[in-house]
Amino acid sequence: MPNETSPATRPARAPHPVNGTSLSFDLAAEADKLRREPTWQARGHNAKTLVKHPDFRVVLIALRAGARMSEHKTDHCVTIHALEGKLRLQLPGETLELAAGTAGSLLALEQTVLHDIEALTDSLFVLSLGWSKGAVGT
Is the model's pLDDT at 8 over the cut of 80? Predict the structure, then answer.
């Protein structure tokens, strides 16, 4: 599929070390790294998991204008926070646009909602996924 990547084409990355009780990120620097990697250069789509716990994930995703994440669904609670650019999400029966603006736009999706994400402009967003207690590890 054009403008999409599989985990096999992404470079291996060292995990972020936790220093003390917290973990912080310079999202601009992380985005710059994503956009320098071959996956972004070749396909216009790159992602990095920033936080990974058994019941929670935070992923930084960069999409070049025109790149898309084809229709999919997850059994997890999802939020999408637009940091840069403009995204279009196709949901059952509606189309939504998220734009970065001053503070960005945040969208929360119910579990199992089919959705498609397309970058209308070069975009950067944070995807958060949370598992309900009964779904941990799935």
Answer: no
Q: Give yes or no for residue 94 having a pLDDT over 70.
A: yes
Range of the structural domain that residue 77 is part of:
26-132
Please provide residue 2's backbone torsions phi and psi, each rounded to the nearest 5 degrees.
Answer: -70, 145
CA distance 15 to 57: 13
Instruction: Tell me the C-alpha to C-alpha distance, in Å, between residue 14 and each of 39, 98, 112.
Output: 17, 31, 31
94 with 124: CB under 8 angstroms? Answer: no
8 A C-beta contact, residue 56 and residue 62: no
Interval 34-58: pLDDT, tens: 999 998 888 889 999 998 888 888 9
Per-residue H/E/C for 60-76: EEEECCCCEEEEECCCC
Query: CATH number for the domain including 107?
Result: 2.60.120.10
